[in-house]
């Protein structure tokens, strides 16, 4: 980062996947006790360790307090792969894979199914996100053609009860696939993390109560536990690894936050409170940093006889859209004024939000 000219005050966090090489790279600057080894070990997508000597040399001179955040979507896939540990579900999936394999190995069967429905089976791949869901979804979509051709070819296919279980499994995995598709976006996805996780937890609770398959109900319960454990650093303010940054990103996006401010859930309201405190502290900290920069700039201006007013600092507040809009020279942002801005913003959340994105909302406030 020094080679690229990126100063440490511009870096809030670094997001990586859960590969063991990525975890090792940030081990020296990751808070002690961060539970990353479990993710690396049981992740089907975990990468092999790079050569230790190479990694040590590469990060030997890093002297910055950087917090590493594991990729949310990558971690979400670890929750999904809990289904592989449920024996009865794994048996059905293995049988579904065998049917898919038969079709993919037979050019005759592949051509016949293409002629009948214009689609073919999809194989799952452990390193591809939502691959199990995609395989199950495609099988259910072309179920009639699969059964007919498998029968003509003399192959064993799925039993009616197994098709029914696949249908329930599809219902279980659908919200995970949908949120994966949304959160893997390159832009503005952090503000969607908190509501997405709560939405998935709510879905798992509803599914556990409504499904007629006891093994799938048990699976939903295990997935809930896995989510609460893996995402405690986002959802549990009492967890020692808790980072309020994700909740803050949600809070300042009105298109998302408006759905949470009135939710009667103590955990959600506590997260929003933590987000407010984070914003106040971040603004206050940055104001102090700008004051120091401003003093240094004043000395430099005295040395230049024909210099104009000093340009505005490039080190803008992380959440500058919550600062008071003004064309005046720099002003110190008091904690009380920041809280007033937050109160005003929360009042605006009670009104319909017509903007498509949080960025559009704040640009209108300029």
TrEMBL record:
Bias kind Acidic residues: ranges: 35-52
Listed InterPro entries: RNaseH-like_sf (IPR012337), ZnF_BED_domain_contain (IPR052035)
Region (Disordered): 31-52, 283-319
Record's compositionally biased regions (Basic and acidic residues): 299-308
The protein's name in its UniProt record: Zinc finger BED domain-containing protein 4-like
